[in-house]
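Handout, tutorial session.
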Amino acid sequence: MPDRQSELYLNLLKKTLTNIVYEDAPNRTRFVKKPYFDLEQRMNGEDWPVTAHTMIGMRRLDNIQECVETVLADGVPGDLIETGVWRGGACIFMRGVLAAHGVTDRLVWVADSFEGMPHTDDDGNVTDKWLKLDDDNDILAVSQETVQENFARYDLLDDQVRFIKGWFCDSLPNAPVERLAVLRLDGDLYDSTMDSLVNLYPKVAPGGFVIIDDFVIPSCRQAVEEFRAKNDVTEPIREIDNESVYWRLDS
């Protein structure tokens, strides 16, 4: 566990990344329940903030902290990655946890198209076609340069942060990631989830964690369940909040 000063830093970092300090309003979308700042909504990652650098909420940031600190305490080898990063907040927090613990031998991988969501054509998953998240790319598309600038705002852009740009089907098969301690998926769609699992799950070390941000979305859940069944993954799934889950690989 970090000392008191480090814990205060990480708590402030979470509050800043979610912007519950200044309480920015959410973007008006099909998915936001209340079109004004609501603390419980922000805590649970149920809105798309106008200003905040993450939309995953405090409870999912707490989960990232728990998973990263656990692998550090238990000596589980490997780096940290998120696939689907939006403005970069979750990855910024991963880097902040490493900094708070003085860890210099692990990387944070930031994987995204940096172009928003792919077009869901007639050949795509039924739920993905219904969601049509690419219709919201005016909000969801965030450039790599903007994400890098966001890291720099927190003094956390350094050589322990690596970027993987492209659609996951193209970028992940040859990604230079050797071993992972924490794999966090936030790609929303069936193909994005499956591509991430197929290419990165084999790199997760025993004792490492897999976090699924979008388990509430039926197509994401379908991909996870199909992958687990096909690959005999039997570790129990644990809830983080109403939308996301995680599991830990057996040591």
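The second record follows below. Compare its token runs with those of the first.
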Amino acid sequence: MLKGKKSLCMMIILVTACAAFAFKGIVLGGTKKSASTMTTNINKTSVKVVKASTDTMVNSTSFNASLEASEEGTISSKIGGKVIEVSFENGRTVSAGQALAKLDDTDIRNNIKSSEAQLTAAEAQLRSAESSASSSQIMIAKQQTNLETAQRNYYRTKALFDQGAVSKVEFEASESSLKLAQADLESAKASSQSSSLSTETQRANIQKSQTDLNTLRESLQNTTITAPTSGIISGKSITVGQYLSPGTVLGKVQNISFINAVIEVKESDLSYVKLGAMAKFKLSDKDSEEYDGVVKSIDGAADPISRVFKCRIQIDNKDGKLKPGVFGNIKIATDENKKAIMVPLKALAGSEGKYYVFVNNNGVAKKQNITVGEISEDTVEIKSGVQDGDSIIYTNVGTLQDGDAVKVAAE
């Protein structure tokens, strides 16, 4: 009995050991197979590639640029006065001629009434002087007639006196009448001249009164301070109750519907920086938004110190995104184009002076050091390190290492 129990135990132990060994083999075999499959799949990074190609590249030169308003007007008071109303703020968009502030006009209105009264009086005096001058002219005509009658009577009487037909008394009487008629005519002429001078004086008074009245009316209009041009207000410097002197600057209005990018150009660059040349503006190299511009003006003479020419590029800014005083970058195409190998900008890795790309070499990412040239929008010129036709990886570049296995994903 004891011998039978011992054999059964040995059999159980043996079966158990065989089962354990078999299970281990199965488990280890399955694990090794799964690990091999997982290793093959996990280590391959999915990437997209593009073939490096030689394209025609438009050469361009970059310039640092500062933005300024295409037009700027100064808000100022043409007359002195106390501010009673202000209706503008910095950053507000206004139209040319729009009312911005109001000065007290009480004194001016009173002066206008006084000037109008003076003008009315001067006009009345002119009418009186003109009437007197007219009467003087009538009197001259009358005295001229009297003189002519007296002259005829004198010559007739003298002839008769010489013949002895009339007395000396009659002759002397006609002579006296002639002299009196001559005196009356001279008096009438003197009176007429005085009336004419009075008329001219009154006309001068009217002209002065009218000028004074026009000046006052213009001053009344100038009590309303208006925008000199359309644009955005900046530099506000005015408060209610403030007394302004003529010419006091109260702020500025900047027209930025078109904005100028100002660059400094060397004489050697004037061969392609010409009036009408097209340009591109960006706030920074990282900024994706680009603005079209055109060269509108170039200074006729270089700065005597820096020896550069100031050039202004006009940019359409109807949306108002660009602001004066901001810096950016202008690119202007040169007259020469060239052939160059171009790849997507996002394929580029590394830092300045140490750039590289990954080339797909039969499923292996090969790190390739490169020299870059011009960067244009979303592409970059490769001067060395890449051959025409190389398969360049342009996705997952930041996670790749030299020698990593890759698989090309379908586009």
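Points raised in discussion: The two ends are 79 Å apart (CA to CA).
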